[in-house]
Specification:
Layout (H helix, E strand, L loop, with lengths): L3 E9 L5 E10 L4 E5 L6 H8 L7 E6 L2 E2 L4 H7 E4 L12 H10 L5 H14 L15 H13 L5 E5 L7 H12 L4 E5 L3 H7 L2 E6 L2 E7 H4 L3 H4 L5
Parallel strand pairs: 3-8, 3-9, 6-7, 7-8
Antiparallel strand pairs: 1-2, 1-4, 4-5, 9-10
Bound molecules: adenosine-5'-diphosphate and magnesium ion.
């Protein structure tokens, strides 16, 4: 049985833009899938559905074979999403409070949440940022904090939206190292083909709101040239 499955999803934004047009997608237990496609192909919209931020207008999402229907809570609990813009995710006055927020929001006592947050910052090698205000960090640091804020809740599935976008090589290597060390089911939307080939065994290519190819990441993402036919 698939861990997470999107069946024939369709979604249009209020201005009439059709972002998903009958998109189907399956994530198996332990899968690490790269989601690749041109700008505007629907990657972020799909992730927002999988993470329970958007309700499908057509089609359905199933978690372990069970349709979640309107119960987006089940998806929110199972899928931790790292947004493309860390600024959309970070909002507390300090990094430690920000990272602990996912736990305090689940009614975990603040001191326990803070101690879990500091353990998580430690594991990611960013304990020194704990007292800094998130909005003053560099974009690489913000990205690591955003990842910590998701890992702290230990979600079953992690969805990452362009986790290496706008990072310098060192920060990118840091993110790769962290993601490579995670034993989790993951879906990563990215233009970073090298990262996709390194971290993911499978790739799914989207174009105009539909899946147009899927298979082995090393084969499908071998080079940019072969992706041109998908508008990439
Ligand atoms: N808030 C929005 N309002 C209207 N259209 C949007 C909005 N966000 C995204 N879109 C449109 O939906 C389509 C899919 O966008 P998106 O899922 O962000 O693609 P990707 O992440 O692959 O770049 C694009 O045509 C985009 O312009
Ligand atoms: Mg996007």
């Amino acid at each position: 049985m698939a861990l997470l499955e999107a069946k024939d999803l369709s979604y249009g934004y209020p201005d009439g833009t059709l972002a998903l047009r009958g998109l189907s997608f399956t994530l198996g237990e332990g899968d690490k899938i790269a989601l690749v496609g041109a700008n505007g192909s629907g990657k972020s919209t799909l992730l927002l559905h999988l993470a329970g931020c958007f309700a499908p207008q057509g089609g359905e999402i199933c978690l372990r074979g069970k349709s979640v229907g309107k119960d987006l809570r089940a998806l929110k609990d199972a899928v931790g999403m790292v947004f493309q813009e860390p600024d959309d995710q970070l909002f507390m006055p300090s990094v430690a409070l920000d990272v602990s927020f996912g736990l305090t929001a689940r009614k975990i006592k603040p001191e326990i949440a803070l101690s879990a947050a500091s353990g998580c910052l430690e594991r990611l090698g960013i304990a020194h940022l704990a007292d800094r205000p998130p909005h003053r960090l560099s974009s690489g640091e913000k990205r690591l904090v955003a990842i910590a804020g998701i890992l702290v809740t230990d979600p079953e599935i992690i969805a990452l939206d362009e986790p290496t976008a706008a990072l310098d090589p060192r920060a990118r290597r840091e993110v790769l190292k962290i993601l490579g060390g995670l034993d989790k089911s993951m879906i990563i939307a990215t233009h970073d083909l090298e990262m996709a080939r390194t971290l993911c065994r499978k790739a799914v290519i989207v174009q105009s709101g539909r899946v147009v190819a899927e298979g082995s990441a090393s084969e499908l993402l071998a080079d940019e040239k072969s992706l041109e036919r998908y508008g990439f």
